[in-house]
Amino acid sequence: MRGVIFRGDCTLELENFPDPTPGPGEVVLEIKASGMCGSDLHVYRSPRVESTRPVIAGHEPCGVVVATGPGVVSPYARVGSRVMVHHYRGCAACEDCRSGWPQMCHAVPVTVYGSDAHGAHAPYMKVAADTLVPLDDRLSFAAGAAISCGTGTAWGAFERMGLTGRDTLAVFGQGPVGLSATLLAKAQGARVIALDIDENRRASAKAFGADHVLNPRDCNVIDAVRELTAGRGATMTLETSGATAAAEDAMTCVRPWGTVCLVGIGAEIRFSLAKMLRSQLRILPSWTMSIMAQKACADFSVERNVDLDSLFTDRWTLDQAEEAYTKFNLQSGGKGVFLM
To answer: Gene3D superfamilies of this UniProt entry (predicted)?
Structure first.
């Protein structure tokens, strides 16, 4: 089979690999959809390095179980099952792993599919059976791929924040995670202020129901958010872009007793505790989601009829991988996915 390899310097290749064979506790999936995540761009843009052990990219897998190895007992791992993958693998025995947070495992080095082990930008993928999450028949494979990281990351942030329909949420960045946040927050009844410098992404946010859409280059963000909230500021802010300026604005335009959640990779933040102390803010980082949260996000999307397929503006084949990432690298428009 052929799989996509990131080479750095905004280059990639389709390289030949043997078809995977499951070992003990493992399954092989026939990949039906593999999402493109904004974090892919960090590797895609990195300096070129020649690797003696190239790894297939893609950490938003969704497909069908086609083979199982010895000792597989998961009810989700039967041949023919439609599944998503929680793309982290820990020791499976420690407190963090058993609570559904294998990415927090400290007992063994954490495996990240698509980074440390072969990912889903290929026809087949081998994973540990305990990383599988069932995919409801009412969700498309593309929707399942989105939930496997980008959309699931937005949901995981909301679980940490405690978002409710009473909140006014400012979402900084309307890329795949930010647009997912806008879509899911509106489905929960929240009032949403969406911010992005890209016109296409602002248009998508408006189409997804954002109550207000702002271009940070055209206004003073702090003043604009306060004007939209009777001078008080948002009750919650979510930063998804990874831009330092956006993270600083997210911490400043929230009202006293509010919650700030930081998701975007790349931002470096400095602040004065003396200025922040009396605001009584909760400042939370959030790293993807737990296995249970991934399932909960899928269940919510079915129950509320959330149109996750509308997140995708680009659908590609693996043969179009170079064109796909060249376009994705522009960071304009919505989410991309490879369909097999």
So the answer is: Medium-chain alcohol dehydrogenases, catalytic domain, NAD(P)-binding Rossmann-like Domain
Q: What is the pTM of this model?
A: 0.95
The neighbouring-strand residues paired with 30 are 64, 124
Q: Which two tokens stand for residue 25?
A: 């506790």
pLDDT digits (tens, 9 = 90+) for 54-82: 999 999 999 999 999 999 988 889 999 99
- Say how far apart CA 69 and CA 129 lie, in whole Å: 9
- The owner of tokens 């702090």 is 222
CATH number listed for the domain at residues 2-149+289-339:
3.90.180.10
Q: Position 73: which residue type?
A: V
Beta strands 234-239 and 168-172 are parallel
Task: State which CATH number among 3.40.1160.10, 3.60.20.10, 3.40.50.1220, 3.40.50.720 fits the domain covering 152-285.
Answer: 3.40.50.720
**Which residues have a Cβ under 8 Å from the Cβ of 244 and sit 6 or more positions away?**
266, 267, 268, 269
